[in-house]
């Protein structure tokens, strides 16, 4: 919770600055890793997600690694990088569009032509055909999606290839294919006489292009946290049950809001036969939840909510639906990053918000809304360690390379995968965002 007033609004908006304050002892609590005060290139060549909330998750061997950033960018001051990014963007003009996710640091967001949640960014990549290059300041699965939905002449660039997502890496194509084969043995593959398929696969946007292609090929759909409820409705109109991956929490929270009991949402552990379930449990299931999670959002607890309410009795608690179910139940509302942004904008002055999502967004909202009191539920600052990898040094490097006619860090999805994944993504984009049932009013769901 806030312990001092910022003297400069940008002070609260920078994770780097917040981490310096922690180091200087100006804020209660401690960082999850003091390495977060280091620049990202210190970690880029080392296998791992780097410092931050997902640092201890095992990284797959084939996860992309970022090569060394040229020294001129590593040595440049913040002001120099800011000026170089502005100059490169001015030189490129309409030839480039910079997209930024809400979780990006402020030093990046200020250069983005469009900032949004993962649904909005996918749409933004699809609707800006004038730009030859889309510089995607987000994580790898978002850049892959942008490549799939953008026009063939457009190049998508991820400024730091090490910006992955530990949750997306928790579901691999081989493991999902193995699960699918086991489900086919139990439920068959033939369409039921009511016209419904036995199982509809639904993948969260936070997954590889290969998994989106798998889903597209098997009659399924992609969802984001902003349209998961509407996507489940879409899936249940076409199938008897859903295989939901990789995020168990988004699946469980959305399923429960639709009235599905927990007993009908078993967890699928890919390391166990039948996912660790009995045949009978699977026959009863409506949603099979893959054993994945976000390391940032699973840090939020009911205890933190209790403490926030004790200190600020009128506080409105909003959490992202990647948080565990007990946390979503204890909150006043749950929704995507865009839902959180809009809820705060619509509130009367003097409102108090305790937020359960990534710290960059919470700090920016606090700086942009001095009329409210806004703080993060978690007193320990742990940014998403992969979003954090997009540092202005990398943005300056990719933009200046474009000015010189050189495309670095291009993300490409092979045509076959892109075609199949595109089917599932177009289905997703046709399902308009809407809040998870019950998330706008009162407590829990
Ligand atoms: P949104 O879809 O809400 O932008 O979330 C993306 C994400 O990665 C959250 O962890
Ligand atoms: Fe992935 Fe979590 Fe980071 Fe989102 S916040 S990109 S789900 S690790």
UniProtKB/TrEMBL annotation:
<comment type="pathway">
    <text>Cofactor biosynthesis; NAD(+) biosynthesis; quinolinate from iminoaspartate: step 1/1.</text>
</comment>
<keyword id="KW-0411">Iron-sulfur</keyword>
<feature type="binding site">
    <location>
        <position position="225"/>
    </location>
    <ligand>
        <name>iminosuccinate</name>
    </ligand>
</feature>
<keyword id="KW-0004">4Fe-4S</keyword>
<comment type="similarity">
    <text>Belongs to the quinolinate synthase family. Type 3 subfamily.</text>
</comment>
<feature type="binding site">
    <location>
        <begin position="204"/>
        <end position="206"/>
    </location>
    <ligand>
        <name>iminosuccinate</name>
    </ligand>
</feature>
<feature type="binding site">
    <location>
        <position position="165"/>
    </location>
    <ligand>
        <name>[4Fe-4S] cluster</name>
    </ligand>
</feature>
<feature type="binding site">
    <location>
        <position position="118"/>
    </location>
    <ligand>
        <name>iminosuccinate</name>
    </ligand>
</feature>
<dbReference type="GO" id="GO:0046872">
    <property type="term" value="F:metal ion binding"/>
</dbReference>
<feature type="binding site">
    <location>
        <position position="337"/>
    </location>
    <ligand>
        <name>iminosuccinate</name>
    </ligand>
</feature>
<dbReference type="InterPro" id="IPR003473">
    <property type="entry name" value="NadA"/>
</dbReference>
<keyword id="KW-0662">Pyridine nucleotide biosynthesis</keyword>
<dbReference type="InterPro" id="IPR036094">
    <property type="entry name" value="NadA_sf"/>
</dbReference>
<protein>
    <recommendedName>
        <fullName>Quinolinate synthase</fullName>
        <ecNumber>2.5.1.72</ecNumber>
    </recommendedName>
</protein>
<keyword id="KW-0408">Iron</keyword>
<keyword id="KW-0808">Transferase</keyword>
<dbReference type="Pfam" id="PF02445">
    <property type="entry name" value="NadA"/>
</dbReference>
<feature type="region of interest" description="Disordered">
    <location>
        <begin position="27"/>
        <end position="72"/>
    </location>
</feature>
<dbReference type="GO" id="GO:0034628">
    <property type="term" value="P:'de novo' NAD+ biosynthetic process from L-aspartate"/>
</dbReference>
<feature type="binding site">
    <location>
        <begin position="320"/>
        <end position="322"/>
    </location>
    <ligand>
        <name>iminosuccinate</name>
    </ligand>
</feature>
<keyword id="KW-0963">Cytoplasm</keyword>
<feature type="binding site">
    <location>
        <position position="294"/>
    </location>
    <ligand>
        <name>[4Fe-4S] cluster</name>
    </ligand>
</feature>
<feature type="binding site">
    <location>
        <position position="101"/>
    </location>
    <ligand>
        <name>iminosuccinate</name>
    </ligand>
</feature>
<keyword id="KW-0479">Metal-binding</keyword>
<dbReference type="InterPro" id="IPR023515">
    <property type="entry name" value="Quinolinate_synth_A_type3"/>
</dbReference>
<feature type="binding site">
    <location>
        <position position="384"/>
    </location>
    <ligand>
        <name>[4Fe-4S] cluster</name>
    </ligand>
</feature>
<comment type="function">
    <text>Catalyzes the condensation of iminoaspartate with dihydroxyacetone phosphate to form quinolinate.</text>
</comment>
<dbReference type="GO" id="GO:0005829">
    <property type="term" value="C:cytosol"/>
</dbReference>
<dbReference type="GO" id="GO:0051539">
    <property type="term" value="F:4 iron, 4 sulfur cluster binding"/>
</dbReference>
<dbReference type="GO" id="GO:0008987">
    <property type="term" value="F:quinolinate synthetase A activity"/>
</dbReference>
């Amino acid at each position: 919770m806030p312990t001092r007033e910022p003297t400069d609004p940008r002070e609260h908006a920078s994770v780097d600055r917040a981490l310096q304050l922690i180091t200087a002892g100006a804020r209660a609590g401690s960082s999850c890793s003091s390495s977060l005060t280091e620049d990202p290139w210190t970690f880029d060549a080392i296998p791992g997600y780097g410092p931050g909330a997902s640092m201890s998750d095992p990284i797959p061997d084939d996860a992309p690694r970022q090569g060394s950033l040229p020294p001129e960018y590593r040595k440049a001051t913040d002001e120099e990088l800011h000026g170089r990014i502005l100059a490169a963007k001015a030189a490129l003009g309409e030839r480039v569009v910079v997209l930024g996710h809400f979780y990006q640091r402020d030093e990046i967001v200020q250069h983005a032509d469009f900032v949004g949640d993962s649904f909005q960014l996918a749409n933004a990549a699809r609707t800006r055909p004038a730009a030859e290059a889309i510089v995607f300041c987000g994580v790898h699965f978002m850049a892959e999606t942008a490549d799939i939905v953008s026009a063939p002449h457009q190049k998508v660039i991820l400024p730091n290839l090490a910006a992955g997502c530990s949750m997306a890496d928790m579901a691999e194509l081989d493991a999902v294919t193995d699960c699918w084969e086991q489900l086919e043995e139990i439920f068959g593959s033939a369409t039921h006489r009511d016209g419904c398929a036995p199982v509809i696969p639904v993948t969260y946007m936070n997954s590889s292009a290969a998994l989106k292609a798998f889903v597209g090929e098997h009659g399924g759909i992609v969802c984001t946290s902003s349209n998961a409820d509407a996507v489940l409705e879409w899936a249940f109109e076409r199938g008897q049950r859903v295989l939901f991956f990789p995020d168990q929490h988004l699946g469980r929270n959305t399923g429960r809001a639709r009235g599905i009991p927990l007993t009908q949402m078993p967890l699928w552990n890919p390391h166990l036969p039948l996912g660790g379930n009995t045949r009978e449990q699977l026959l009863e299931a409506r949603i099979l939840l893959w054993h994945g999670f976000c390391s940032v959002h699973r840090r939020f607890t009911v205890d933190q909510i209790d403490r926030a309410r004790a200190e600020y009795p009128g506080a409105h608690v909003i959490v992202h639906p990647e948080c565990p179910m007990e946390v979503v139940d204890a909150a006043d509302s749950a929704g995507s990053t865009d839902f959180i942004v809009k809820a705060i904008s619509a509130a009367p002055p003097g409102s108090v918000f305790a937020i359960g999502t990534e710290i960059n967004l919470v700090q920016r909202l606090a700086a942009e809304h001095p009329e409210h009191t806004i703080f993060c539920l978690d007193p320990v600052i742990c940014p998403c360690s992969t979003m954090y990898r997009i540092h202005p040094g990398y943005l300056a490097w990719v933009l200046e390379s474009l000015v010189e006619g050189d495309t670095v860090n291009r993300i490409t999805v092979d045509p076959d995968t892109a075609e199949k994944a595109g089917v599932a993504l177009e289905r997703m984009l046709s399902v308009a965002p809407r809040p998870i049932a019950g998330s706008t009013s009162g407590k829990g769901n």
